[in-house]
Amino acid sequence: MYKDYKLKSDYRPKEKSIKNSDIIIAISHKTKSDLISYYNIPSKKIFVTHLGVNLLKNYLNYQIINDPYLLYVGDRKRYKNFINLLKAYSISKRINKNFKLVLFGGGQLTELELDIINKYKLDLNLIIQISGGDNELSSLYKYASLFVFPSKYEGFGLPLLEAASLNCPVACSNIEVFREIMGESVEYFNPNSVEDIIQNLEKILFSNSLSKKLIIKAVNQLNNYSWDKCAKKTLEIYNL
Q: What pTM was estimated for this model as a whole?
């Protein structure tokens, strides 16, 4: 497992609220360890309650993208590590000749992203940016060949569970919080290595058997995350 993205040492939003709290509810053990590390909060004051997942079952009754594609969701800046994914996609002819790259949300391509596309002489028509709501997102998950989450840091990782709920196989960064949330139900890659990203994406995209195994494992992983469990555990903490 590779080291997570490091927050700036002086980055302490909501410090006063955190230190004045009697109890803190964290959404993951990774978040708890960050609170201890960056705010020097006693461990006994922090309780972990995993989020539930909203099962995205309402989707458009047609494919938005008719060609096979990889899906990336959300913001693309800083620790989201999209640049390494874009480099991997651009370099691997095996991938970009067979799959488009669909970006949901995050705004139009930036100058830096366009520069990378030009550097590797990639056809800009292979990358599609789409905005929309849950119906569009659900359809994109449902019909994607693979969902890729290359972040170097996250507090939880809801898109991993959203993808699993619509039988979309997942490849993501080998970081602590993703291991905590998804266990062995996804394919992990080194987020700092473009070559490792390529190897792991190709491994899934060109193996139907591996893709199906990952889907089955991820669907089973969903049983650990429900809003009922989250609510009950939260109530237990309030009743302490």
A: 0.92
